[in-house]
Amino acid sequence: MISRRDFVIAAMAAGMLASGARGAFAQAARAGKMTQDDILRFDPVGTLTILHTTDLHAQLEPIYFREPSVNIGVGEARGLPPHLVDEAFLAYYKIAAGGPDAYALTSLDFDTLAGTYGRMGGADRIATLIKAIRAARGEGNVLLLDGGDGLQGSWSSLQTKGEDMVRVFGALGLDAMVGHWEFTYGTARVQEIVEKAPFAFLAQNVRSMEWQEPVFEARKMFERGGSKIAVIGQAFPRTPISNPRWMIPDWEFGLREEDLQKQVDEARAAGAEVVVLLSHNGFDVDRKLAGRVKGIDVILTGHTHDALPAPVMVGSTLLIATGSHGKFISRLDLDVRDGKVAGFRYGLLPVFSDAIAPDPEMAALVKELRAPYAADLGRVVGQAGSLLYRRGNFNGTFDDMICQAMLTERDAEIALSPGFRWGGTLRSGDPITFEAIANATAITYPACYRNMMTGQQLKDVLEDVADNIFNADPYFQGGGDMVRVGGVGYAIDIGQPMGKRISDLTYLKTGQPLDASKTYAVAGWASVNQGVEGPPIWELVERYVAATRTVDIAPTASVKVSGA
Amino acid sequence: MQLRSWTPSRRETMGLGLTALLAAALAPRLVLATEEAVAAELKKLYGDKPMADGKIKLDLPEIAENGLVVPLNIDVESPMTDGDYVKAVHVFADGNPLPQVVTYRFTPQSGKAAASVRMRLAQTQNVVAVAEMSNGALYTAKAQVKVTIGGCGG
Asked: How many CA atoms lie within 13 A of A549 on its CB side?
């Protein structure tokens, strides 16, 4: 396996991280002088290359995506990547402020830098990079893996139940994927995708409820670069808790550590020289798991959307974090000798859409896939008066907009919006299109309910969700970021146990404390209950934005965080 | 073949799930057992006899997917011979209205001391198992199961 002295940090893209030449990189990108060759420059190692995409959230076109400014690590993950943001992140990875890496990897000065460096991602740009790497390395030496949440997150993916992305992945020559949001298309559709897709859908940790039989292929052996590589799939273990269980009533998930160990051992016994876990556990869960399950060479992490320019090592296991929304692809070259991994080189390749020539075939496919929805996608509803973003542990301005829409359109006193990590960012001055709204709301259970809740019940909900994020043991964490609130403010002490984190709940309209026994009208969406009634959230947001015209929202000051 | 005898502590009412955000928040509060109640039950069974850790493998989810039917697999290490076997295994849940979950009784003919059951858990709590060996020795194991009222996607 891998020893520490073989640990080579390849700089992002052109490998100029240490040379201080990143400013020039930026200028070159804007001046159109830089090509994909600069991003692709890579000193190869061995004969095997693994490429990883994850959490694309069905983004066919380049978008803006602001990384979190708040991403708190608890327990053993405290102060460690991926829980470093902004200045701390730049210092840890020795990245210059104001350059393209800082733009791609942090939230610092995002609105301005986005203007300089442009949108990131896009299936046609990703295709260009992958084709070029295949051409340079040889077709039979490259393995392409996706970490899940690829088939959901856009209007066209919702309308086609993920078929648009199945076709994109097929065209990219994907070898295997795992799942999370994919399961929200329901049992029948997932089974159909598994049957028809030209790539493997792997998940070792899903069982039939009644007989405890494996539902999916657990692992697959590939031969690339003269080596045998076993890829084991790990679906998001908390899917039936975080998302509607009624959509997949016969399937049971969970971490299933012991079964995973068996898969690793069986793979080795079957001659695997490299064992890869293609995981949607989330980074902290994978870090803990890497110390407990023996014999995994590489964990390709997902779910928590972290983009790290260097691998994290746990013992001899490499953890790779490729970000989200197509902003990055990971390239991992492995030097396999005497039946084991002897060395590696890694690069997190930023997909700067202005610097990469679109692949014509993929561009044509994307155009074809979007054409039926062109009128909806392009409909301009209003304008962003400020930066509208979602990602972060607490409220983001995009979610504040959604909460405002619910308060207004459903005549509610309090609004609750789920802490999803996906959804693009709009710069101030950008048009708010229906596509932008859908990019943050396109789910199969979009009904916006209106309910009565007491102040105590609201506190209980906040406590419960907070423990899903801030439980010190990652195995007891689940789901996304903190539920977003509208109409109320609160204080949260991260370091407290469940039931004691939330205090000072304030009804913002009056500035008075929320009354534990009083009943309030609460609007929310994305309930995991069956039969929830209400209009789809995107309709409410569209109506609200159309009426507001210019949406200007400053980051909230009504959530006060301590104990981090 | 595996011989099992079991005593379900409570009838399962398979109604609507309470796992979702609002439903659970609106659920009535039950009078729930405590760690002391489990200790009292054990005292009734075995007095103040000491219990050692080990021998018992409790396989439980860290987070229940559905608090109404939480799967439990239990496996006690034993040769299961006439001279050395597991006589009984008791399972308790210290945060349920009634702490007793199930009791299994084994004989050497059971072949192995292993069983699976699904139980209802009212809230986040500890599941405690106690195994009584044929020589009278007692072993115990404990695991926490989190019963959540709702995550948020991801």
From this structure: 0
